[in-house]
């Protein structure tokens, strides 16, 4: 079976700073993998290497069997299959929620306005903000904005979704609504790679949890092991701080 994501001996330097020091892991189709670890450990850089927002210094990355680190790859074609959700929602402030979810469908997938609107409404409905189609981002709560951003990614019919701390910018009372949407996606079988500090989500939803520290993977296993019974002192020390 082809891995959804296959990362082999991935290294990334920024100048003299080696941020990723040989990362190996895979995500299978339909799996949810949560990446946890201290700030600065390289989690975002790893995620960004999976859609080539960062160019790896060394190593190979495959997405659905296509080597994206091959210089001849059509990266735009690969990126169309990958949805990405960031900590900051990056919505267009001058556009309504509906327009935000339509624009990439029209520009990138060349869908007509009618079809893009139907798909946008479906997805806004799905994430629970169907009543907010005409609102601009400033008129929405952070949790609603993040759900619009998720709807925008889903409207492109991605095969897999990357989330980089999707709830870290939210007021605590808004985190649950976003996690509920992510849980639903996981239950529907979406392949998801999620950087998060939400240990409850990781424990309940993830098939595997990857603990990173200092640019390496320290532990990789089911949540019952990595969170419930960590084998390494570094993992235990991190979990003591966040649990
Ligand atoms: P995390 O997401 O785990 O907090 P990051 O991947 O964002 O960690 O960052 C890991 C390290 O890489 C940090 O030391 C950070 O300063 C550095 N870094 C990240 N992006 C860049 C960049 N574009 N240029 C230089 N250094 C970077
Ligand atoms: Mg980060």
UniProtKB/TrEMBL annotation:
GO MF term list: ATP binding
Localisation per UniProt entry: Cell membrane
InterPro entries hit by this protein: AAA+_ATPase, ABC_ATPase_HisP-typ, ABC_transporter-like_ATP-bd, ABC_transporter-like_CS, MetN_ABC_transporter-like, P-loop_NTPase
Name the record gives this protein: Amino acid ABC transporter ATP-binding protein
Keywords, alphabetical: Amino-acid transport, ATP-binding, Cell membrane, Membrane, Nucleotide-binding, Transport
Pfam families referenced in this protein's UniProt entry, alphabetically: ABC_tran (PF00005)
Domain of life: Bacteria
SMART domains membership: AAA
Domain ABC transporter: 5-239
Sequence similarity: Belongs to the ABC transporter superfamily.
Membrane-protein topology: Peripheral membrane protein
SUPFAM superfamilies: P-loop containing nucleoside triphosphate hydrolases
Keyword Cell membrane: yes
Keyword Endoplasmic reticulum on entry: no
Entries under CDD domains matching the protein: ABC_HisP_GlnQ
PROSITE patterns associated with the record: ABC_TRANSPORTER_1 (PS00211), ABC_TRANSPORTER_2 (PS50893)
